[in-house]
Design a protein that fits this description.
Elements lengths: L1 H12 L3 H5 L3 E4 L4 E3 H12 L8 H23 L6 H12 L4 H10 L4 H22 L6 H10 L5 E9 L2 H12 L5 H8 L14 E2 L22 E3 L2 E11 L6 H28 L2 E2 L3 H14 L2
Antiparallel strand pairs: 1-2, 1-7, 3-4, 3-6, 5-6
């Protein structure tokens, strides 16, 4: 994060000639503009810590995604799609959950972001998702399609589990001991001890079936609701699991089936809709803008 902070500061306060000569706008169409600084900040958020050798292909890919996202959001506005406040707050909460509470404000500062920027970004995503749902839902989903999906997709038993991973057995035992003394919630202990990627989210894993994850996770199927396992060893370290919820095997509900069919349609229709929107919008990329962006990022990175 330290490297990211330095680059972000250079970005907002730099007097480098490369930055001064950089176009303010990197792409424009009939109804949208993509700003160079916004594109660079997104590149830093997603790839800054990995210190890429060549920024150009990254920026090219991100620019295409930004164009598509803005076109979908603009189309959503034309069609009257408006995300609810509840949906917006849920989306923002999801973004915040990626960071421990004490680090969230610091992370925004490091990325030259404000809470209002985060809100705008979440709203843009919701608008794009909304117009895709609208497009996919134009054609009704028949009962026959629902029944066919359910027949092909039987539901196995799934578990919702919190996961704590440590390098040593002693650390895992200490975490279990503290939990049994009721001094901390399991999620707090995960944030304190765990080195797993999901630690910042309290260790909560997506629901999984038996055999879907490495074998050590199958031990969770023998736990009772709310029970915590003893430390379990694997090639990755020492694991502690807590069973949060158990979803019984059976047939999917009509609602789950319809939503799954709708998501599949959204994926199939997204490319077609974006192609139409790009054609109408007449997107032009500013010549030389992306190499200039890449050069600035490379130069800023070399100063760290």
């Amino acid at each position: 994060m330290r490297a990211l902070t330095g680059i972000a500061l250079l970005l907002v306060g730099c007097v480098d000639p490369v930055l001064q000569e950089m176009p303010e706008v990197v792409a424009r169409g009939r109804d949208i503009e993509i700003k160079g600084q916004a594109l660079m900040l997104r590149a830093l958020r997603q790839y800054g810590d990995s210190k890429p050798v060549d920024w150009l292909p990254i920026i090219e890919r991100l620019l295409d995604d930004e164009i598509d996202l803005n076109l979908l959001a603009f189309e959503a506005g034309k069609r009257g799609v408006k995300p609810s406040e509840d949906a917006l707050e849920t989306a923002i909460a999801s973004l915040k959950s990626r960071y421990p509470a004490h680090q969230f404000r610091r992370s925004l500062d490091a990325l030259a972001l404000r809470p209002i920027d985060l809100r705008r970004r979440a709203r843009l995503r919701l608008l794009a998702e909304g117009v895709l749902r609208l497009e996919a839902g134009v054609e009704s989903i028949s009962d026959a399609v629902v029944a066919n999906w359910k027949a092909k997709n039987p539901m196995a038993e799934k578990l919702l589990v919190r996961h704590l991973l440590t390098a040593s057995q002693s650390q895992a035992k200490e975490a279990v001991s503290l939990y049994k003394k009721r001094r901390f919630s399991f999620a707090d202990l995960v944030r304190r001890f765990s080195k797993a990627p999901e630690a910042s989210q309290g260790g909560l894993l997506p629901a999984f079936e038996r055999g879907e994850l490495p074998a050590v996770f199958d031990q969770a199927f023998s736990l009772k609701m709310g029970e915590v396992s003893d430390p379990l060893e694997s090639e990755h370290g020492w694991h502690v699991l807590r069973l949060e919820d158990r979803q019984a095997a059976g047939v999917a509900s009509d609602d789950i089936a319809r939503r799954a069919v709708l998501r599949r349609r959204e994926g199939a229709l997204q490319g077609q809709l974006i192609a139409r929107l790009r054609l109408v919008a007449g997107i032009d990329k500013v010549p030389g803008a992306l190499p200039a962006l890449a050069a600035f990022l490379r130069r800023a990175q070399e100063t760290q």
